[in-house]
Design goal:
The complex is a heterodimer of chains A (263) and B (165). Chain A is of the alpha+beta class. Chain A folds into three domains: 5-50, Uridine Diphospho-n-acetylenolpyruvylglucosamine Reductase, domain 2; 57-163, 2-Layer Sandwich (Uridine Diphospho-n-acetylenolpyruvylglucosamine Reductase, domain 3), CATH 3.30.465.10; 168-262, Enolase-like, domain 1 (2-Layer Sandwich), CATH 3.30.390.50. Chain A is 32% helix and 23% strand. Chain A contains ten helices and twelve strands. Chain A has helices at residues 12-21, 34-39, 75-81, 86-93, 98-103, 106-112, 119-126, 139-142, 210-218, 243-262; strands at 5-7, 25-28, 47-50, 60-63, 66-70, 129-132, 136-138, 157-163, 167-174, 181-190, 193-199, 207-208. In chain A, the strands form three sheets. Chain A has a five-stranded antiparallel sheet. In chain A, strands 9-10-11-12 form a four-stranded antiparallel sheet, with helices on both faces. Chain A has a three-stranded parallel sheet with strand order 1-3-2, covered by helices on one side. The longest helix of chain A has 20 residues, at 243-262. The model of chain A has no long low-confidence stretch (mean pLDDT 97). Chain B is α+β, with helices and mostly antiparallel strands. Chain B folds into two domains: 2-84, Beta-grasp domain (Ubiquitin-like (UB roll)); 94-157, DNA polymerase, domain 1 (Orthogonal Bundle), CATH 1.10.150.120. Chain B contains five helices and six strands. Chain B has helices at residues 30-37, 94-101, 111-124, 130-136, 148-157, and strands spanning 2-4, 8-15, 18-24, 56-59, 62-65, 78-80. In chain B, strands 1, 2, 3, 4, 5 and 6 form a six-stranded mixed sheet that branches. The longest helix of chain B has 14 residues, at 111-124. Chain B is elongated. The model of chain B is unreliable at 1-6 (pLDDT under 50). Classes of the chains: A alpha+beta (263), B alpha+beta (165). The interface between A and B is medium-sized, with 30 and 31 residues. Bound molecules: flavin-adenine dinucleotide (FAD) and FE2/S2 (inorganic) cluster (FES) (2 copies). The site of one FE2/S2 (inorganic) cluster has 10 residues of chain B, from loops.
Chain lengths: 263, 165
């Protein structure tokens, strides 16, 4: 690893100040993505600004059809505590392994926007709101291509607000070593309509699957999407799965997600 | 955590039940602190990607990968490593003994992580099913045993019948 300083501010205000004073400072949350990245010398920050002492990022609550989750809440806590939104709790419980879930955070996952990560699918399918130290950002405007979001330099995600769907389900086909999604689909049905988000599949990161939404808006059933095929533009291809296989998996995960939503 | 000019950062935490005061650099990982500075080499480094689980320890009771935690985050933490599992006279814990009795290890490289992982499961689920054990070991890779005897050892350690397994 390169050398860097380590700071652990105790208030959000201090964290924001440190980041605004130093362009090369980087936020550390659970470290489950950032630390391996540092170990591989893929990043060279001047200092890590740990968020672990910020109590204001640790809340998880549900009321009035909304689940609000602080950015510093771990995957393990969402799995155990988001009972008001079972599909989200199940998604969190399926991330990585138990050690990753004990430290990795929802804020870190959403800010990182790995094209194969699970949370971005839930955020986009629910039309959740990403709250930062500066503003609130609608999911449809937040993700901006793989590993990219509209967050400014030094902007800290403080929490997520998920409207609770009437019915919802997430299904992923995991890459067995990393556990990330080779293809993952989140289906959320609201009074206003159905939203479907796909992760693990596109070179541009998480996206909404318009044809699946249209079909499910007409008829919220597995039959309605039985023969639906994902258009093959920009589908990722790597040693784990080529584009054709990934696109096929997306269709299978869609059916499983609808099945989960209906069960 | 306080900054000290000479060494970097002063840290205080509990390690296997005893208080530790030490200094680390800003970029010190927990695994490097344990192995290189404190001489506890039971925690193994098996990969560069935080996927293998050989480095598993317990931090405030939660299983965590020592290769993916910065030491600077651990002021005040309660850390248990594989060295903290046996009794002070060297008598193995029942879980460790079960690994020995049921040949749950061959080269032994993955074993510290396996024991720490299994211990965290048994704390929450005293009598896990075979499926629960296999799911829990999802993040612990073994290149020797084929997992069968590891599963068997954990079933036995939790007081379950293993003849049929
Ligand atoms: C073995 C393994 C398996 C995994 N499996 C899965 C999986 O199945 N599905 C999945 O989705 N993920 C998986 N992950 C990734 C895991 O979920 C990470 O926890 C997550 O991607 C990042 O969260 P973190 O809290 O660890 O963030 P960190 O690693 O600390 O940070 C990640 C990035 O986000 C930035 N950041 C962190 N918090 C904030 C914030 N509040 N505001 C602004 N920027 C911030 C950091 O600067 C950094 O760039 C896996 C990881 C490992 C090691
Ligand atoms: S050394 Fe492989 S997970 Fe930590
Ligand atoms: S016993 Fe050799 S890796 Fe598991």
């Amino acid at each position: 690893m390169y050398e860097f300083e380590f700071v652990k501010p105790t208030t959000l205000k201090d964290a924001v100040q440190i980041l605004s004073d130093d362009d090369e400072a980087v936020v550390l949350a659970g470290g489950q993505t950032l630390v391996p990245t540092l170990r591989q010398r893929l990043a060279m920050p001047s200092q890590l600004v740990s968020l672990s002492a910020l109590k204001e990022l640790q809340d998880l609550s549900a009321d009035a059809g909304m689940v609000t989750i602080g950015a510093g809440v771990t995957h393990a806590r969402v799995a155990a505590e988001a009972a008001a939104f079972p599909a989200l709790a199940a998604l969190a419980g399926g991330i990585g392994d138990h050690a990753v879930r004990n430290r990795g955070t929802i804020g870190g996952s959403v800010a990182n926007n790995d094209p194969s990560a699970c949370y971005p699918a839930a955020v986009l399918a629910c039309g959740a709101t990403v709250v930062t130290d500066q503003r609130s950002i609608a999911a449809d405007a937040f993700f901006d291509g793989m590993f990219t979001t509209v967050l400014d330099e030094g902007e800290i995600v403080t929490g997520l607000q998920f409207p609770i769907p009437q019915q919802a389900g997430y299904a992923k086909f995991k890459q067995p070593a990393s556990h990330f999604a080779l293809a993952g689909v989140f289906v959320a049905k609201f009074a206003e309509g159905v939203r479907v988000a796909v992760t693990g599949v596109s070179e541009d990161g998480v996206f909404r699957w318009a044809d699946a939404e249209a079909a499910l808006n007409t008829d919220f059933s597995v039959d309605a999407v039985m023969d639906l095929a994902l258009p093959m533009d920009d589908v990722m291809s790597d040693i784990h799965a080529d584009a054709e296989y990934r696109a096929h998996l997306a269709g299978v995960m869609l059916k499983r997600a609808v099945t989960a939503a209906l069960s | 955590m306080t900054t000290s000019e000479e060494f970097g950062y002063a840290l205080n935490f509990t390690l296997n039940g005893s208080p530790v005061t030490t200094e680390v650099a800003g970029n010190t990982l927990l695994i490097d602190l344990l192995r290189d500075k404190l001489g506890l080499t039971g925690t193994h480094l098996g990969c560069d990607t935080s996927q293998c689980g050989a480095c598993l320890v317990h931090i405030d009771g939660a299983s965590s990968k020592a290769c993916a935690v910065m030491a600077g985050d651990l002021d005040g933490a309660d850390i248990v490593t594989i060295e903290g599992m046996a009794a002070s006279d060297g008598k193995l814990s029942s879980l460790q003994q079960a690994f020995q009795d049921h040949h749950g290890l061959q080269c032994g490289f993955c074993t510290p992580g396996m024991i720490m992982s299994a211990a965290s499961l048994l704390k929450d689920v005293p009598q896990p099913s075979e499926a629960q054990i296999r799911a829990h070991l999802d993040g612990n890779f073994c290149r020797c045993t084929g997992y069968q005897n590891i599963v068997k050892a954990i079933l036995a350690a939790s007081g379950q019948e293993v003849e049929h397994v």
